[in-house]
Amino acid sequence: MRAKFYLTLAAAAGIPLTSASAQDRGTIRQLGPVVAKSTEPVAGVTVRPSTGGVLVNDIAKRRVVFFDSDLSKFTVVADTTAATGNAYPNQFPASLIAFKGDSSLILDAQSLTMLVVDPAGKIGRVMSFPNSQDARAMALTGAAYDGHGHIIYRGAPFPRMPAFGPNGPMGAPDFPDSVPVMRIDLATRVRDTLGWMKIQKIKMDMTRSEDGRVSITSQINPLPVVDELAILPDGSVALIRGKDYHVDFIGPDGARVSAAKVPFDWQRLTDEDKIALIDSVKAARERMGNTAPTVSLGGAGGPQIAFGGAGGGGASPQINIQFGGGGPGGGPGAAAGAPRPAPQMNFVPPTELPDYKPPFFAGASRVDTDGNLWIRTIPTKSIPGGPVYDVINRKGELVERVQVPVNSTIVAFGPSGSVYMTVREGDNTFLQRAKIR
């Protein structure tokens, strides 16, 4: 569902627009040939290549698997069954990141543990989180080991909660539009703030029905302007700014360098363009149907919280919170535990879309083994084939543009000039390995 919605957003974002300042961004070359592909489908993955094979965090199936170098065979490292003896969290997804040498870490915010996995896909030991308060932020918003004894991660966007009156909340939660970039020392557990990055601000609407039920529902912005966080092989932090498309580098020693703006074909969104984009995404979402999974939290009599809709392409998932008015089934007298309808998906008014198309969605960046940033860009014109990535070097300069196969997304880079991608084929997604050139 997320992948399909991402493609919907990308297609809608590619409507014909007026170019504000077309710049020479160079020619586009094709990625090298695909040399291996899995037969086992995976979904919602993060990938960690090693010398022995490749670890895959298969979030959709709540498991971590280890593929051999040819992607033809795999073993289950951790899942939700008793078969492996290693539990995968059933409430929050785990996170998979590189660690010392060629080892990896599986971050489990539910049990507050970090599993150390060796290059052969074997779990060697268990570590505790350096800070339990930030466990969810480290596991859910992305984290990386910097090679110098620290884990770097985004802070969580904690909302300012409204005051409660006799009839429930007196307003909707107010979410921030930026979060801190944190660094924590695994040995001393000392934490510091490296900088700040812009995220999509979640806007909430509150309604109150005649039976006293309060419903707070988020609005989805299909074209948010956000920043991206990436950790380079030398431990430097790269903050890719979406507003004007440049990179701020923070070295391991704290030295800061702001690179020049990356050339980009900025395109203005007129009022008519904004309306057309929102209408396109709404229509596509209606064609998909209300089949996105939802998760409900809270018992009878308490607040009912449901997460649903698609969150791909940088758009936030739909959030619906209800207070009072009976059980989770909806109205007064509804039986506790009864199924509740999926929340309606709402979108921001067209006037709240940016005046210029941003260069990328959230989650668009990857780092290769040479320290180059690969940014999956939002299309500004119709180009046959698959997605196009800007490749930006350590100086913040655009050095080339690379197109990957149709329905493919880069998820990681491996040794010897290899790149790992997911490819969507019908309702399934597979892992494949290709050469960069």
Shape: globular
Number of helices: 3
Helix content: under 10%
Roughly how many Å is the radius of gyration?
22 Å
Q: Specify the biggest β-sheet.
A: 6 strands, mixed
Determine the structural class based on helices, strands and strand pairing.
mainly beta
User: Please, what is the average pLDDT?
Assistant: 83
Strand content: 35-45%
Q: How far apart are the first and last residues' alpha carbons, in Å?
A: 31 Å
Unreliable stretches covering 5 or more consecutive residues: 1-8, 16-22, 291-343
Number of strands: 35
Explain the overall architecture.
α1 (2-13) runs antiparallel to α3. The model is unreliable at 1-8, 16-22 and 291-343 (pLDDT under 50). The protein contains 3 helices and 35 strands. The chain is mainly β and 437 residues long. The strands form 9 sheets. Strands 18, 19, 25, 26, 27 and 28 form a 6-stranded mixed beta sheet that branches. A 5-stranded mixed beta sheet has the order 2-32-31-30-29, with no helix packed on it. The two termini are 31 Å apart. It is globular, with a radius of gyration of 22 Å.
Question: Gist?
Answer:
By secondary structure, the chain is mainly beta.
Descriptive keywords:
437 residues; mainly beta; 5-stranded mixed sheet; 35 strands; 8% helix; globular; disordered N terminus
Topology, pairings included?
Layout (H helix, E strand, L loop, with lengths): L1 H12 L4 E4 L6 E3 L3 E4 L7 E5 L4 E5 L4 E5 L6 E5 L16 E4 L5 E5 L4 E5 L5 E6 L6 H6 L2 E3 L4 E5 L9 E2 L2 E2 L8 E8 L5 E8 L4 E6 L5 E7 L7 E4 L5 E5 L4 E5 L5 E3 L7 E3 L2 H18 L6 E3 L6 E5 L9 E6 L22 E2 L12 E8 L5 E5 L10 E5 L5 E6 L4 E7 L3 E8 L2 E8 L2
Parallel strand pairs: 2-32, 19-28
Antiparallel strand pairs: 1-24, 3-35, 4-5, 5-6, 6-7, 8-9, 9-10, 10-11, 12-13, 13-16, 14-15, 16-17, 18-19, 19-27, 20-21, 21-22, 22-23, 25-26, 26-27, 29-30, 30-31, 31-32, 33-34, 34-35
Helix pairs in contact: 1-3
